[in-house]
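Holo prediction — 4'-deoxy-4'-aminopyridoxal-5'-phosphate.
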Amino acid sequence: MMTLSNSLAHADVAHQLHPFTDARAFEQNGPLIIDHGQGIHVFDSTGKKYIEGMAGLWSVAVGFNEPRLAEAAYKQFQKLPYYHTFSAKSHEPSIKLSEKLAEMAPEGLNHVLYCSSGSEGNDTVVKLVWYYNNALGRREKKKFLARTNAYHGITMASGSLTGIAVDHKDFDLPILPVIHLTCPHFYREGTAGETEEQFTARLLKELEDTIAREGADTIAAFIGEPVMGAGGVLVPPKGYWESVEAICRKNDILIVADEVINGFGRLGTTFGAAKMGFTPDIMTVSKQITSSYMPLAAIVFSDAIYEAVADNSHKIGAFAHGFTAAGHPVATAVALENIAIIEERDLVGNAARLEAPFQSGLRAFADKPLVGEVRGVGLMAAVELVADKATKAKFSKSGQVGQIANRIAHEEGLILRAIGDTLALCPPLIVTEADVAEILRIMGVVLDRTAKEVAELGIA
Ligand code: PMP
């Protein structure tokens, strides 16, 4: 436990309410204050060095001290630190980034709308989709299909799309017409005796039955992370996304790929949808677009949506949506430089090349005590810890063992993320093979020490 010996920690406890933190426990333990970063490492205020095994919040592709991003920001700050994009005003960085995103996106997705966070992005997706359907006179076609354990953000609409119970509890969410379908995670959602193929068929039937029950003319869109992140790195079974796409197309339901984590190389492809075998109508991107050096999100959407939206804006007199910081010149300038670095250093290829050692190295831990499932794609992965490997029984107090592992990882110099009792890893895309080996070595130690401590404490 950290003692609150330093004044920064005291001030933090006194004044800052931290996201996704138990405030009372925080009063006792205080913060881990990160002071500076270098490559894949960050250093805390005592000088201790950590591998940032989560790339911050799944987001720092190019590492923690990329001078080219600092220079790109500084140059733009000097030239034009702020301008907006309302009322036909524009500026070069937002124009160039839009052109670049259209070039990178699947064919037919040529239009971009900006905001500053993934949550705002998915809120805007809801508004864009509703506006689109209203423009087409389909005023009933408004419901969203999402999945349990999905994470799409935390604002009113995006938080409603999110399918994680604790994110709804006591916030009076969801407030949208959203239907959460079964999460495509065979290990947890598959029933006894069911094969993975049968499981997939059951989920697809659930989708078809839901559409039949609700009526396709009431369902606007299906939103999903190609590979789910914050829900615990949940990888859908083979064929799942292709079939979801086919069912949605048959029923004229838009497909929204939430690429906020997957986008810009995380899965070893530029966007996650390609890796999972489907083509969306809309993508939400954020995080790795700027390596999170600046807040930025973009919604990249199809020509068909644009045409209807443009017509309607003409009829009404304006597309009456936008944020003060939409397409912020410094954020978009940093994004352009960040994407240039990703391309020049072939970081997408790096993720694809390191997928095998990273994923197979982690899967080698499957035989260790407490390890229920190891899963992941590209450079994102998770190790789920369980009370009983044979029955997959969870620990009676969810998250307790995850916190033990989290503390031990910190002691061993690795930042990971405990999602309940699942340990997530998502290192910066600049990792080398040697870095991956070091992450795996530390993970082995973390898992062994956690199992020992859990046994000593008699946790079940
Ligand atoms: N979508 C996904 C898939 C995410 O992982 C996140 C953030 N973890 C969001 C949306 C929300 O992004 P933000 O935190 O920037 O609002």
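READOUT: The longest helix spans residues 433-457.
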